[in-house]
């Protein structure tokens, strides 16, 4: 197939047979066992781990969502919504077991709503993309990491970052903040913290740029904006671009 840059319409159209197969697999789930609750937790939060989750995703959580997935979850409604918005080592287990896929996703999505968890699990299952989505971790491990200034925000119910490993791969960490709430999808469950963190990260570069402008031109940032067309820009613009690249770095 030839590579093409042509933009063509794409629609999410899952055949009913795939949904029927999913329902059948869910009905035949073979459940694992787990320790009695009193052996798992004393009910006291331990750092970012919720009580009852010390050994991982609880059996009862997965069973509850599987029941909802089988009985009340409406994939067709979400399929229609996706059309209007954005229609565009463990992989073997999630690819073969919808309950396994659900448990794998719930590890980081449990802080969001049930419908959101089930929609993500359904998308992965119907498209069989558990493996391809996990390749990012291998590729990131082998990628050349950026040298631009980098910021990290850690949230309570996400994987806890270790600074010595982060500094090994990112040589210019200029912002490191840890928060007492929020999870892997902080844009959904702690948007205020995430927005403030991003603003704070870029603010340091805006201040540095303003100081650079004053030193080079003897004018304030406001005066510089009022400069006549054709005036030569200062080096501060490059600094701003570096900061933009930095936030998107892994």
Provide structural commentary.
The chain is mainly alpha-helical and 250 residues long. The protein is 55% helix and 4% strand. It has two domains: 16-134, no CATH class; 144-247, no CATH class. It has a two-stranded parallel sheet.
Topology:
Elements: H1 16-27, H2 37-40, H3 59-71, H4 75-84, H5 92-96, H6 98-109, H7 114-127, H8 130-141, E1 150-154, H9 163-169, E2 173-178, H10 186-189, H11 191-217, H12 221-225, H13 236-247
Parallel strand pairs: 1-2
Protein name: Epoxide hydrolase N-terminal domain-containing protein
Domain Epoxide hydrolase N-terminal: 7-88
Keywords: Aromatic hydrocarbons catabolism, Hydrolase
Please tag this protein with its features.
disordered C terminus, single chain, 2 strands, two-stranded parallel sheet, mainly alpha, 250 residues
Which spans have pLDDT < 50 for at least 5 consecutive residues? 85-89, 221-250
Q: Count structural domains.
A: 2
Question: Which overall shape is indicated by the principal axes computed on the Cα atoms?
Answer: globular
| Major beta-sheet overview | 2 strands, parallel
Number of helices: 13
- Provide the structure class: mainly alpha
Family: Belongs to the peptidase S33 family.
Keywords: Aromatic hydrocarbons catabolism, Hydrolase
Protein name: Epoxide hydrolase N-terminal domain-containing protein
Biased composition (Low complexity): 219-239
